[in-house]
Amino acid sequence: MKKIFLIGGSAVVLGIIAMIVLAILNLGSIIKTATETYGPQITKTEVKLGSADISILSGSGSLEDFLLGNPKGFSLPNALECDTIRIKVDTDSLTSDRIIIEEIFIDGPIISYEKKGKTDNFKTILNNVNKTISSEKKTTKKETTEKADSTGSEKKIQINNFIVKNGRINLGGSMLAAFGQEKGMGIDLPDLHIKDIGKEKETSPAEAFAIILKSMTGDIAGSVMQVGKQLQESLGKAIDGVSSGSESIGSTIKGLFGGSD
Known about the structure:
Largest sheet: 9 strands, mixed
Distance between the termini: 76 Å
Order of helices and strands: HHEEEEEEEHHEEHEEHH
Helix content: 40-55%
Radius of gyration: 23 Å
Shape: globular
Number of strands: 11
Number of helices: 7
């Protein structure tokens, strides 16, 4: 009987080890599945990830071919595209209630920016995220616990460094028509570095994403507005109606920014 018990115990241990090894080997696919499952729930847009390669030993790795889709009603298919996102995770935190990400580094993202009325695609996504956060906060503690497995909302997140460099902004819709192909494609996005997200306060993934998105939205709108002002200045008297063709362009540019929040 003792021998049988030992054999049975060994089998259980081996099974657990096998599950751990399997999880390590498939960490990339787990991250990809989680991103494409939970991302759309938070943003209400398409979220795609080509692949993920994270070392469970070092916590370092990369996410390839990330895509954040545009909300319905906008002409451009995507809001953000990035070939590679480098990431560094505190591996000791993976089994805790707060996952600590030491650094997320996004190099050379392509941002597609489009206004619609008094809003734009990024403000719309941010509004969707805030609705998700509001819904989470209204959920009772018991319901949150029950939903944890399906939404991942029980996990908190801390991001020590979120860095964006060498980003470019492409305009869409009426903005591209107003700015023209030369001015409306490839506007520089200022480098961004946000520190200690979720360090002082418990922060859900949705809340962390909202903090990042709000900062990026301000930088994007500010950069586009600056180019718009430069374009208005370059048009000079034409914007005041000397040239009918330039007057149309100038009025459109003024209207785009005059209606912004």
